[in-house]
Specification:
DNA-binding, DNA-binding transcriptional ArsR family regulator, transcription, alpha+beta, Arc Repressor Mutant, subunit A, transcription regulation, 3 strands, three-stranded antiparallel β-sheet, 108 residues, WH-like_DNA-bd_sf
Amino acid sequence: MSRKPEPNVAVDLDSLADRLDALGHVTRLRILAELCRAGPDGLAVGTLQDRLGIGAASTLSKHVAHLLTAGLMTQERRSTVLLCRISDGALANLRVDLDAVLGGGTSD
């Protein structure tokens, strides 16, 4: 029986918890999924709102704020358009940190 490695304490657990918390709502997961599909060009907030069928802009703003605070997405104003994108490397870094803390995640 192989022994699982010890969790990597070098990972900022507070940051990891914040990122996981940001993923803890179906609407925020849907936002990230849409942004992943959009690729590096991202999506305008209005387009994102339409694709997700979110009626109130304040509802979308609340969820976007969680993702921005957690560093999972960015926003850039281009004239009158607010463009949303996945943060460079955010999802890859999340996977790396989870593997480091959970020791690879095997269940045997």
